[in-house]
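User: I'm preparing a small set of examples for a lab meeting where we compare how different chains pack in three dimensions. I only have the primary sequence for this one, and I'd like the structure in token form so I can line it up with the others. Please keep the answer compact; I'll paste it straight into my notes.
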Amino acid sequence: MHSDGPNDERGLSQQIAVTREPEQAGEDIWAKDKVFEVNDVTVSYGKKPAVRDVTMDIVRNEVTALIGPSGCGKSTLLRCLNRMNDLIPSASVEGEILYHGQDLYGHKVDPVQVRKMIGMVFQKPNPFPKSVYDNIAFGPKVLGMKDIDERVEKALHGAALWDEVKDRLDDNAYGMSGGQQQRLCIARTMAVEPEVILMDEPCSALDPISTGKIEDLMAELKEQFSIVIVTHNMQQAARVSDKTAFLIVELDATDENRWGQLVEYDETGKIFTNPQDSRTEDYVTGKVG
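Assistant: Understood. Below is the structure token output for the 289-residue chain.
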């Protein structure tokens, strides 16, 4: 079920057919509240652009997937959404990113507060060298939140981890399996009550069973959160996302400079079964990698 093979075109279509409701006539797929409005965004490291001129809207309570070949700027774009690129001295962001209509990069906006509202789960599980309990409690304590015990239990329930760890909350998190550690990191993100969860290839280091649990969890979490996921696995994008953005690597005439470019952004079913751009079709059918 969780094959990484990019060429299973028939399998992709079948998965989408099972998981996506048919679009109603005249339905506006962008009618939900917009969480992010990304307008002509270019991100550079030094003088070299990593991704250029991206414009897209991300709506509430959906899973939005960013797919494309290595080096197309997926993770760079994702990190723009909670100002993680601020932590890279050479990074600069041009254009406009609105979060509920407010300029995310406005002078009066506190990046720390941004990262509280817009959490991040990384490619490799990164639990703190602390107990399971302390991993979850850390953020709420730093932020001065109350009812820490309740928040820990609620977050672990939300990450479908409570039954597995409720009797060993004092054990070091490093003793957990990789899949459990990643769900712990998701629970740690949830504990500070964000609105959005960003996931940067959260399953790439996990086995198929753990991957399945994370994917099932995403389907449940989107009822509470808006999720944006970077994934190299197209089958995963087809299974879990409502909308998919496809990016490619563009080269200049000298082939020395390259950057990511958004090619197409639409409902996941359309991207995988009826894309509007031939480059998207070539990628999702495995003609190019």
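A couple of notes for your slides: Residues 35-126+196-284 form a domain with the Rossmann fold fold (CATH 3.40.50.300). Strands lie at 34-45, 48-59, 63-67, 91-99, 102-103, 118-121, 196-200, 226-230, 243-251, 258-267.

User: Perfect, thanks.
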